[in-house]
Design goal:
By secondary structure, the protein is an all-beta fold. The chain has one domain. The protein has no helices and six strands. The strands form two sheets. A four-stranded antiparallel sheet has the order 1-4-5-6, with no helix packed on it. The protein has a two-stranded antiparallel sheet with strand order 2-3. It is globular and about 35 Å long.
């Protein structure tokens, strides 16, 4: 499941351009998280975690 992050975590600024930051939950248990954003036709992976990040609790 993918969803946009909220608040300050929901935006990433790269080289002066703002992008929506998204989170993917790849496991059925929902523990792991992948943070990413899309710029043009490129998906940038920012973080891959095996546990739920404290920033989104």
């Amino acid at each position: 499941m993918n969803h946009r992050l909220r608040g300050e975590s929901g935006v990433v600024v790269r080289e002066g351009s703002s992008h929506e930051r998204w989170q993917h939950e790849p496991t059925a248990a929902g523990d792991a998280r992948i943070w990413f954003y899309v710029e043009d036709d490129v998906v940038h992976l920012e973080q891959v975690r095996t546990r739920h990040p404290n920033e989104t609790k």
